[in-house]
Specification:
328 residues; Rossmann fold; Arc Repressor Mutant, subunit A; 11 strands; elongated; DJ-1/PfpI; DNA-binding transcription factor activity; GlxA family transcriptional regulator
Length: 328
């Protein structure tokens, strides 16, 4: 079996989980395929070969300097503190050597370093939600999509913050070695196999602020756990022990979105998971998510995702008997 070299770039202030998450995934491939030599040769390198201190205070000792590192199949750039003047040597190295890698990968704000090196021009990418606006502003030639947890554009793969690097690494293992290998690694790491790249960085609960008052927080949780229930303002107001008018105003003031918008996000999020992970029919999914009719769910999907439920399932259904498609 071909052994792919994965070169992980280390630098002062790197986010430790951006490094260790993907590394553990690639390292787990040896166990998954029953080959002690593994499908991947992992190598870490800093600019001068010296140890680096992570943003969390850990010290990482690289295998070598970047100058002495082996030519990578997959070049992985993790995130961390923004590019600083003293990092110009790293950016120059990426500019020279990045185009030679068969696969170019970034985790979190590692995308900013790739952009600095001119390696993302004309590409569709993502990064941590807090830095998407900055990336788009500083590099107008890059199409920045703030929503997905990871994006594939040709040989370039970029991911959102921190744990999204694990999702992307699992996707790359599945691409290289097949679904069963990736599933074995995910089970060992006790993570999902796998959140699709199109999944939003924020769930409905994370996208909204958490209400200050306990009755409103309880309503938020109720909506999430009962998407098929009566979630009208009147019904939710009764649950919150408020008048409908007072409830609607208080909910928006404390969560940052109207009750209707929150319900819509919860329902479409739930419907996406069912379409991705089950063989339930569209009509059954629409009932389970509180849409009432398949047509109501179709309108919501087209409005929010630009695709009908049937089209969405064709693209992202992940059950074993369905052939997967390549993410955009």
């Amino acid at each position: 079996m071909e052994q792919r070299t994965v070169l992980v770039v280390l630098f002062e202030g790197v986010q430790s989980l951006d490094v260790t998450g993907p590394v553990e995934v690639f390292a787990g491939a040896a166990h998954a395929i029953g080959d002690p030599d593994g499908a991947y040769r992992l190598h870490t390198a800093s600019l001068d070969g010296g140890p680096v201190r992570t943003s969390g205070g850990l010290t990482l000792l690289p295998d070598s300097s970047l100058a002495d590192a082996p030519a990578p199949h997959t070049l992985l750039v993790p995130g961390g503190q923004g590019t600083r003047p003293e990092d110009r040597g790293l950016i120059d190295w990426l500019r020279e050597h990045g185009p030679r890698a068969e696969r170019l990968v970034s985790v979190c704000t590692g995308a900013i370093r790739l952009a600095e090196a001119g390696l993302l021009e004309g590409r569709r990418v993502t990064t941590h939600w807090a830095y998407c606006d900055q990336l788009a502003k500083d590099f107008p030639g890059i199409e920045v999509d703030p929503d997905p947890i990871y994006v594939r554009d040709g040989h370039v793969a970029t991911s959102a913050g921190v744990t999204a690097g694990i999702d992307l690494a699992l996707a790359l293992v599945e691409e290289d070695l097949g679904r069963q290998a990736a599933l074995t690694i995910a089970r060992y790491l006790v993570v999902f196999l796998r959140r699709p790249g199109n999944q939003a960085q924020f769930s409905a609960q994370l996208a909204a602020q958490t209400a200050r008052r306990e009755p409103l927080r309880e309503v938020q949780q109720w909506i999430t756990e009962h998407p098929d229930d009566d979630l009208s303002v009147d019904a939710l107001a009764v649950r919150a022990r408020l008048s409908p008018r007072h409830f609607a105003r208080a909910f928006q003031a404390e969560t940052g979105m109207t009750p209707g918008k929150y319900v819509e996000r919860v329902r479409i999020e739930h419907a996406r998971r069912l379409l991705e992970d089950t063989a339930d029919g569209v009509e059954e999914v629409s009932r389970a998510c509180g849409y009432g009719t398949p047509e109501a769910m179709r309108r919501s999907f087209v409005k929010t995702l630009g695709a009908s439920p049937a089209e969405y399932r064709r693209r992202f259904h992940r059950t074993p008997h369905v052939t997967s498609t390549t993410h955009r």
